[in-house]
């Protein structure tokens, strides 16, 4: 669902339209793209077309500034990868990067103009204690110090509590699998690690195999209830599918691998929404085979209504009266997929109470009306 005021989604699908925009359209587009973390991406799209100079001066300044920020992010992430690699060298484990850091290390299209909030890596579950210990020795400290939160991550989730570096304040997420162990789907992390590929020129650094990278990106997007970066993540998937899709073997094995890893449903959603929203070229035979992951009729209609709203830019001009409800329902759904009800209900109640306490603890501002 594209609203009439959604300037961003149409130009992502048809970048050539960027040069036909007037100042008022650019004003709205810049605001929408900034909220979606895709403003640097627009700058790169225009530069690749050799059309950046055709953009009016004021929006061009915003584009170029966003590109500078993205370049700085990339530089910082490369440095962090080198520090993490050094910290984990004594463990003998490879540094298997996930998501944004993996795209950057491997030089993949989704890294173009990407903004980073954290670095994700995958390690064997049995290696978590030694990995955490070595990271602590090198300046990363655990967050979420509440005893319940620590138990929530360590007992039920697929990762350690996020780690923050004491000096650089970088955030590191250490995963032992890609979905919580209490989730309904159980992709085997051993299979992901066994198929991982080394990054040329980066000793002991790995990324997931191309098909697994797509499946992980799809799983992250369609099982994560916080879709404030949903459109950006969908753009990642579009990039990956276009890039890897040049290899006929990629399409031939994609659906089979999704079945092997119990990820048919995320793959179905990934192919459906990249194709319908961003025009990703997916072979008809692959789309038909991916229908094995299609939800039942009523569920499919409901999910379509929810996801088309949630995958729009998170900007007031891109939503309708039901957009907030859609995002909230998908948030609840994500927790339902992660945890059985006997764990989910107390967890959500606890989160709600903590949010209330946090709001109540905020200092109030006294506003004095002056005449």
What keyword list fits this structure?
6% strand; 371 residues; seven-stranded mixed sheet; alpha/beta; 16 helices; Beta Polymerase, domain 2
Can you characterise this structure?
The model is unreliable at 366-371 (pLDDT under 50). α3 (39-48) crosses α4. It is built from 16 helices and seven strands. It has a single domain, classed as Beta Polymerase, domain 2. The chain starts with 7 loop residues before the first helix and ends in a 10-residue tail after the last helix. The chain has helices at 8-13, 23-35, 39-48, 57-88, 99-106, 128-137, 147-156, 189-194, 210-223, 230-244, 248-260, 264-278, 284-290, 297-310, 323-338, 341-361; strands at residues 95-98, 119-122, 140-142, 163-165, 171-175, 197-198, 205-207. The longest helix is centred in the first third of the chain and has 32 residues, at 57-88. Strands 3-4-5-2-1-7-6 form a seven-stranded mixed sheet, with helices on one face.
The rounded distance between the terminal residues' Cα atoms is 47 Å
Task: Give the C-alpha Rg.
Answer: 21 Å
Helix and strand content put the structural class at alpha/beta
Order of strands, widest sheet: 3-4-5-2-1-7-6
Question: Might you state the CATH topology name?
Answer: Beta Polymerase, domain 2
Cα shape: globular
Please count the beta strands (DSSP E, at least 2 residues each).
7
Instruction: Name the helix and strand elements from N-terminus to C-terminus, one letter apiece.
Output: HHHHEHEHEHEEHEEHHHHHHHH
Main sheet properties: 7 strands, mixed
Percent of residues in helical segments? Answer: 55-70%
In CATH's first tier, which class applies? Alpha Beta
Number of helices: 16
